[in-house]
Specification:
single chain; alpha/beta; Rossmann fold; 13 helices; disordered N terminus
């Protein structure tokens, strides 16, 4: 089996660990979808000194002082990175680094942050080398910003040990998602989940949700994601059939028909599939079609890929519903902020993706905190500033999130694959999002991995050391 196939398999599988965070966009006021644009704010075009609806945190100034490693009178050195060097999937998540390079230049063109130039050091975790990347960064940079390492949990001991603060683009493991010295723009905690997708499916398929099932891989991150679904979708009327629950091998299965037959025999009418869209889910759907099994399928945002939609010429995936938290890049015509992200990165020669948009939001969040600290620029000051941020949209890239509390947003969108095109299904109006505070649900029972994290009263893990 050649490398192109391996890249599809691991690229999609590892995206399952990263894109689950990408999901909520909506208005700033909480309820409804009537008078808001795709990013949750007004649709007024942004000024050149803004990023979407966010006033630029970059610009000239007279801040100075060598306040911490990576900070001098004239510059701030931050770290960023991805897993692009992984041999099984060359270029994996490189759009995150593309976004960071473009946003650093965008910021410096305005004068840096309070007059200090931003310098970025790139680190390639190559999937298995996250600890090495962080160990190197520990002695070189001020903070990590906008990075995305799929197996970041393996680096937590090193990161916490050297007190390297981070504003990541995404967290791939529960260790980092609940870790200290970290604030992320689109929270992906293990103890809360956004259930707009569940509410929409329950309204459309009230009978089917009472006979739901889950199929997921044995990859720890995928297990956590599935347990979050099991622990929150019941709040919207879902009933999961224990007899139908199935776990497949991380490397996939050579024959998916036994899995399909079990679902069919136990009466599952709605199935959550977690893991890789290409080729795992594709092969699963082909097996289901061969056995005449046609339930409603629901998935995470990582299933919204060109490869998966292009594959669906057979229509076997026409009953697949995927949650979405950011404005889809295909809806940039409705959201000036999304278009601005695309324009900035492509003008810099980079590639765009939803993960790139997450890295962009992370950079803007970090820069906002850094600007507020002025000459007192320490990582603790930045974190203190960001812990006070409870209303964050990345300038309209996504809905109002609560980075300060590490809680996901209360809005969502569901896309349905129709032929080779993802079509907005809920809410029906293209570019809008459904919002309700009740969509943020505490996971009950807790995800099994939470027991080993030693969460304190602030929901911060002390597994890798107590940070005072």
């Amino acid at each position: 089996m050649g490398r192109p196939h391996l890249r599809r398999r691991w690229g999609a599988l590892l995206a399952a660990m990263t894109l689950v965070a990408v999901g909520c966009s909506g208005n700033r006021d909480g309820l409804g979808t009537d008078d808001t644009g795709p990013g949750g704010g007004p649709t007024t075009p942004a000024a050149s000194t803004s990023f979407g609806t966010l006033a630029s945190p970059c610009g000239p100034g007279d801040a100075g002082g060598a306040t911490q490693q990576g900070v001098t009178d004239t510059q701030i050195t931050i770290g960023y990175g991805d897993d692009a060097g992984y041999q099984g999937a060359p270029g994996l998540n490189h759009e995150m680094a593309d976004a960071m390079k473009a946003m650093i230049d965008w910021c410096n063109d305005q004068g840096g942050i309070n007059g200090r130039k931003v310098v970025g050091n790139y680190y390639d975790a190559k999937i298995l080398d996250a600890a090495i990347a962080i160990q190197n960064a520990c002695g070189q940079v001020f903070m990590m910003v906008g990075e995305g390492f799929a197996l970041d949990g393996g680096a937590e001991s090193a990161r916490v040990g050297c007190r390297l603060a981070a504003v990541p683009g995404f967290t791939g493991t529960s260790d980092f998602a609940m870790g200290p010295l970290m604030v992320q723009p689109v929270p992906n905690p293990i103890d809360y989940n956004s259930v707009q997708q569940a509410a929409a499916l329950a309204r459309a398929y009230p009978d089917e949700v009472k006979k739901a099932a889950v199929v997921y891989s044995s990859l720890p991150a995928t297990v956590d994601t599935t347990e979050k679904v099991l622990g929150t979708y019941t709040s919207q009327g879902f009933t999961f059939l224990d007899a139908c629950t199935q776990t497949y091998a991380v490397q996939g299965e050579t024959d998916w028909k036994p899995f399909v037959q079990r679902l069919k025999d136990c009466g599952a009418q709605m199935v959550y599939f977690s893991g890789s869209p290409s080729p795992y889910f594709e092969n699963f759907l082909d097996a289901a079609a061969q056995l005449g099994y046609d339930p409603v399928w629901f998935t995470e945002a990582n299933f919204v890929t060109p490869e998966f939609s292009d594959w669906n010429v057979s229509g076997n995936a026409d009953r697949v519903y995927s949650k979405m938290l950011f404005t889809p890049l295909e809806q940039a015509d409705l959201n000036p902020t999304t278009q601005q992200y695309i324009d900035i990165v492509t003008a810099h020669g980079g590639d765009v993706s939803l993960l790139g948009a997450q890295a962009t939001s992370a950079f803007l969040l970090w820069a906002t905190g850094a600007k507020a600290c002025g000459s007192n620029l320490t990582s603790q000051c930045v974190l203190d500033e960001l812990h006070q941020v409870h209303d964050w949209t990345g300038g309209g890239l996504h809905s109002t999130m609560d980075p300060g509390r590490n809680v996901p947003g209360a809005c969502g969108m569901v896309l349905n694959l129709q032929g080779t095109e993802f079509v907005q299904w809920s809410p029906e109006q293209r570019g809008q999002f459904e919002c309700d505070p009740s969509f943020v649900v505490k996971v009950d029972p807790p995800v099994a991995s939470a027991a080993g994290l030693k969460l304190n009263a602030d929901r911060v893990s002390e597994k890798n050391g107590v940070v005072g």
